[in-house]
């Protein structure tokens, strides 16, 4: 029987690779694909033109696959129809079965186009209006079909998966590695104590790997949970524990698939083919959005996620589901297993004497492994010995396996993988031979991955990179071929060299570095030295979320963190070379960026982009927001199910222009939004939604409050109620960057003015320009005789307007300080301040049912939550907080505190009671801040502290390892009663801890 013929109908040049993939897939499935570009399969008679040949080929086919991309295609001569549409029409007229596909990116614009047929399309969409009309005509032809008349796709994988179903192709194989493959079952024969790629099946089987207590804890958790999260610092043993759990479950006959994000994410279509079983995801911190999508949408599969600690403020702000689960994660600490590993090494390899055991690194298991290897060979574990062992391993041991110059591969890889950034294979080949790379891959020392059509190389762990880097820095001649080819500063130089060679990678490199601490100087260096490459990379980047992250990362030097309220919070945001971020934002092609935003369906990415630009340059964000199609944006918000995203999107648009955000908020279908709010079980997201909308329009936000109050009424967890109030109170922090003093120009600030014009606005002719005032001091003119620019003062509106010939008009803020008029540039950040909507939040708290809140506090067993909740209420409404605290049963609370083993929670609870006890004597009329607290008003906290069992508390303090918790606990006790706290001082002295109370 001859195979069925399937005609692939699409434009050719832009979809060349996709067509080739489908050709191969159809042939594999036993069909005969017909494509016009393959002459052997597409016969054309002499004298017959190509479009006629296409029509005849369609008529002879059994089926037609239509793919609508970004191009309408070449026209039939003398007719206003493309050859692609002619082929489709021929199939329809002749009753040939059709399977139609359309790119999701294009389909997202269909409804917008229907309502605004004069809309402008992005410049990479050829004949956008013709494509829309074509889709409309297809819809009319396909009306009445029982199956979907058109299928949406993002990649070729989507098309192939749909075709398998449509064509009845039996291919149920899931292309996600199984645990047996990851552990190399039946392949690895010799058990080894230490492998860069992690332990294998034989290592568990032979008992080489220390089995930690968390393994059984995780397996037990799976009994009642579909999702288990483990978190820990780098090199704490998360991946080993994950593999150990997998080994045990597979041995019990369980089916486990593994995604290692350091290698590559798996296509979404493959993941959602999984049947009931287990999915293990390693290194979730590398791609939170991807993991978040899996957690939200994958059902009937038990998931184990391993990750580093995740900051909920991911990028400027990022409402993800994963941080919710981090709170209940199994915490992995390296030192918990260190002694067992040392003992196992002593038994299996070489005995370790007690004096050496005491000196071994316990917190980082990678360093511990190298120390043990060094001790076995040299009898020493100091840094010199470890680095010598690493050097000998790379230069000598690997040479015995056929790798001649491994150092030339490991040096560039270590520099980049310190930040877990994959490195293009092509770049590494500049320093070494292909054979060395291939051999290292074969030996499982390094791995490969493919992204965007390029091959990349990676190490297996960032801590391997750290150890290797220390060795390359210690020995000058080690890795010399690479060092000499770069320059003296080879670490920074490799990044610079890479970006210069592959400028399109600049955004990815900066965003990769930003995931790690102490990165500000490197990002600053790269942004300054490669500014043009960075600008081009942003222009070429289609993902507006990545653009936003990059701008944020260039501007942000550090988030000053402090441990407070049981976690991390942003105390303030400072900027490293804020002028670099401003210059970058000023250089943006706003029309290009606006077009990208218009076609972006994910409002989370949109708000991330706008929010970052607001933080760098408020005026630019305002122009961008003003240019957006509000109807388009409103439609995207209406279909968004994540109410947290909705709130953040509107909040960040308000950062660009409150008026525009207000119009957007007022245009929303509030009844639909109320339904979404009521359906959402996450009070934090409800707070994000209402808080974000309140920044655009308090009038709209107030209409949503009854729904929120209803949710709070039925919520038993006071921690979730606190989170809701926090999110509503979160507000944009407005910063003003000093530019120059109006009164000191011309004069002392003339140089500052010139530098601002040159650096920020890239006005090149002002270096030796004349500066003069006129119009009774209300106008400043800067001129070089040929060209001028003018600043105009408007004291009535506290503004200064800058007019530059042939360019946009700019506005700046005018403020009086120390008797002088100063000019400032407004910038936005995100911080927990409570000025603009203080009354709004205060009223919400005041109208909560205090009696019900009290009952919820009384029922709460977690005293840390009680303290945090009361402290949050104090911030929002002192009177409500004091009423709550006065109503509490202190005897019950005292019993809970005495039973609590975590002294950190004890401190939080006492702190909350002390905060709520205070009676306000005087409040500043302007700022609303508390100026004076009535004497003796903390009697409730004092009474609670005096009732505590101090002997029990001393025992808990003596057992606590965390000195910060000890200090905080004692200081909180002192808030209630200093004399009681003084009785704890001897315990602190024994632990050599100082307190500042």
Describe this structure in words.
The protein has 997 residues and is α/β, with parallel strands linked by helices. Helix content is 52%, strand content 14%. It is built from 51 helices and 24 strands. A 7-stranded antiparallel beta sheet has the order 16-22-21-20-19-18-17. A 5-stranded parallel beta sheet has the order 2-1-3-4-5, sandwiched between helices. It starts with a strand and ends in a 7-residue tail after the last helix. The relative contact order is 0.04. The model is unreliable at 312-319, 557-577, 828-836, 925-932 and 993-997 (pLDDT under 50).
Largest sheet: 7 strands, antiparallel
- Discrete helix count: 51
Average pLDDT number: 82
Strand arrangement, major sheet: 16-22-21-20-19-18-17
Summarize this, please?
By secondary structure, the chain is an alpha/beta fold. Strands 16-22-21-20-19-18-17 form a 7-stranded antiparallel sheet. The protein has a 5-stranded parallel sheet with strand order 2-1-3-4-5, sandwiched between helices. Helix 34 (643-656) packs parallel to helix 37.
